[in-house]
Amino acid sequence: MTMNVARYLVIFEILLFGGNFKLMAGQVPGSAYAPDIPISSQDRVYTADQGSNTVSVFDPSTNQLLGVIPLGIPTPQNLSPLYTGQLLVHGMGFSFDHKTICVVSVGSNSVSFIDTATNTVKAITYVGRSPHEAFFTPDDTEVWVTVRGENYVSVIDNQTYQEKLRIPVGNGPGMTIFRPDGKYGFVCSSFTPATQVIDVKSHQIVATVPQYSTFSPNIAATPDGRQVWLTLKDTGRTQVFSAQPPFNTIATLNTGPITNHVNIVRNGNGQFAYITVGGENVVKVYTTTDTPQLVATIPTGELPHGIWPSGDGTRVYVALENGTGVNAIDTLSNQVIARISGGQSSQALTYVPEAVPTGSGLSNLVPIGNSDLAAHLKMGPPGSDPATAPTTVAVNNQGLTDLLQAAVTGLQPMTYYQLALAQNHSSPYGKLEPIVAFTTNAAGAQIVDTLGPLRQVVTGRAPKKGQDQEPDRQYLVIIPAAGSIQPLQVQLD
């Protein structure tokens, strides 16, 4: 590319985004032709913490947790019919001027709009049943919220915070992301094997892209405007299609069980897709060429979920859903350089450059308190090595009770199982007490949740060799729901 061509492309970008160019970056969700924004103490990393109903706020310049924004309270207090806070804080997006994050709470059907400079909630908009994700249009005039429990995208006016219209898209829309030039919005589905392409100006569907399988929770567009990547959590795959008409599928990659989120990173080595694979506890890195190639696999810890790059592409941050924290990854070396504790069961993650224009940005943040208290366990076949255990478990402190979440992998596809408590750590396991039943997906995996006084039960003091089993200590096992009760996976630590 000659200097003259590059200069004209930059001018085009400035005109296209109405003078907001200096606030854009050459990273998602912006254009490849905008300048990068170096990491500074003005930047913020946010996670939506489903277990603690908080938003964790991190400073990427020091890789420290600054505090949390409480949107709700833990279970079971939030099950009261008089409860007014937010429940199941889950999805997240941000404005292109970097002044606002929008946080979706699945259980309370809400979108909270938070000022990034002051950490205050400036508006709450209630939408339809079980919204999942939200993002601003590139001109910052609208926020598109996928209402996954119904069949439409709720379009919210960014000035009034009121719903202005609905775009019917079919059952279970998962997430919307926009092509950097703002022409198209891409809406994947979690219940229907079809991604809809919508003309942003007219709000009309202009194309449908068949999905390889039904359950897509996350979607990303490349800053160069050429490709769209979407994850398929039910089958452990990632699909790539052209961001240009006729939106042909480019590749379908077998990325691994519990493929969660995908995002795009641009650095000195090129442009790459980073994909969190919860069943393998890794981030996989692919080229964004016409034939995508796996170039790195980065171990992260328990159940990586949300992912977003810094404003200059030198780092990518990863929420660890069962790891109760965040990893920072150097994208040139593809090595984890920091691990930071955060809220419980983090889902979506965003990196917002220059979120705090002046000052410390600490106002209205509160300490994390007991929200980072969690027990972390591993499960696998009896006698196997914990280092290679296929299943990870987090038992999160919820005050008088505990929220257990297991990222189960390594089982038969589409099969019914039970997570149970056993009296003994090894055979004979003694009496088995089922606590939750589940069915695996097509990849032989599942996210399993249950609530109860479990943390001390499964992590209390184990008996010494030669002693009888203590009555207050039990161990997690996975057993078939029918037939044999011989455990297939057991607690290994």
Please specify the SSE layout and strand pairing:
Elements: H1 3-16, E1 44-49, E2 54-59, E3 64-70, E4 89-94, E5 100-105, E6 110-115, E7 120-126, E8 131-136, E9 142-147, E10 152-157, E11 163-168, E12 173-178, E13 184-189, E14 194-199, E15 204-210, E16 219-221, E17 227-232, E18 237-242, E19 249-254, E20 259-267, E21 270-277, E22 282-287, E23 294-299, E24 304-309, E25 315-320, E26 325-330, E27 335-341, E28 346-352, E29 374-380, E30 391-397, E31 402-408, E32 416-422, E33 432-439, E34 446-452, H2 455-459, E35 475-480, E36 489-491
Antiparallel strand pairs: 1-2, 1-28, 2-3, 4-5, 5-6, 6-7, 8-9, 9-10, 10-11, 12-13, 13-14, 14-15, 16-17, 17-18, 18-19, 20-21, 21-22, 22-23, 24-25, 25-26, 26-27, 29-30, 29-36, 30-31, 31-34, 32-33, 32-35, 35-36
Question: Shape, please?
Answer: globular
The CATH C-level name of the largest domain is Mainly Beta
Main sheet properties: 8 strands, antiparallel
Annotated CATH homologous superfamily of the largest domain? YVTN repeat-like/Quinoprotein amine dehydrogenase
Q: What is the beta-strand fraction?
A: over 45%
Rounded to an integer in angstroms, the radius of gyration calculated over CA atoms is 22 Å
Helix content: under 10%
Can you tell me the CATH architecture of the largest domain? 7 Propeller
According to CATH, the fold-level topology of the largest domain is: Methylamine Dehydrogenase, Chain H
Number of strands: 36
Q: How many structurally independent domains?
A: 2
**Number of helices in the DSSP assignment:** 2
User: What is the averaged pLDDT score?
Assistant: 92
- Biggest sheet: strand arrangement: 33-32-35-36-29-30-31-34
- Runs in which pLDDT lies below 50 for 5 or more consecutive residues are 1-24
* Helix/strand/pairing category: mainly beta
Distance from N terminus to C terminus (CA atoms, Å) equals 56 Å
